[in-house]
Design goal:
Length: 211
């Protein structure tokens, strides 16, 4: 009688965001990465893209990133060598796109459309998927997954700008209270700060019965 198959460990999920110091994902009139990306950060992005992540993204992020990937593949003149390689490399990465407005089949290679409830779909992916999962942008999706207690790692790269007048896409609006335990920190190019945490969603302030 053969040995029983080993039980597959559940996949881990990371929310991965870039953010201004005052909590915005972008700013009107500013360039991408607020114009502050540097060689150390771009090299790290290249290393990260080589890892075997499966990316989770919403419709808006899908449209934006697919457009940038296609542009980089057609003409890299608008991107640095590191940016172009990172963007074109996304075509080979498995991606799940959560949307009720897009239609299958999706044009970006290795993209699977999910039209049902994102939280339940990701819960099932965590149970059955091999390898790590990571969000790609997608602020609303990341918020929903964190609130549902599905996020194992919460990683930020903080850019040293305050965009109070021009900031767009406020990241923390609608978040629950969350306790964060730091597991990694790093500085890129002497100005960008990576912070990675294990998040615990709270049902009330610390010290109360609802926490």
């Amino acid at each position: 009688m053969g040995a029983a198959p080993a039980e597959m460990s559940p996949a881990t999920l990371m929310v991965d965001l870039i953010i201004s110091l005052d909590g915005y994902a972008s700013a009107e009139g500013w360039p991408g990465w607020w114009g502050l990306e540097g060689p150390e950060y771009l090299a790290w992005l290249g290393q990260e893209s080589a890892k075997e992540y499966t990316f989770l993204l919403g419709a808006n992020t899908y449209r934006l990133m697919y457009g940038m990937s296609a542009q980089a593949a057609a003409d890299r003149s608008g991107f640095s060598e590191e940016e172009g390689a990172s963007l074109t490399g996304l075509s080979a990465v498995p991606k799940f796109v959560f949307s009720s407005s897009l239609h299958a089949p999706l044009d970006w290679p290795n993209s699977t459309l999910v039209t049902g409830d994102a939280v339940e779909a990701v819960r099932e992916l965590k149970r059955t998927q091999r390898g790590p999962l990571s969000t790609l942008g997608s602020i609303s999706l990341a918020r929903s997954l964190l609130a549902a207690g599905l996020v194992d790692r919460f990683r930020l790269v903080i850019f040293p700008v305050i965009t109070g007048a021009t900031g767009r896409e406020r990241i923390y609006n609608g978040y629950p209270d969350v306790r964060l335990e730091m597991v990694q920190s790093r500085t890129f190019d002497g100005r960008l700060q990576l912070l990675e945490y294990v998040p615990t969603v709270l049902t009330g302030p610390p010290g109360t019965r609802k926490q």
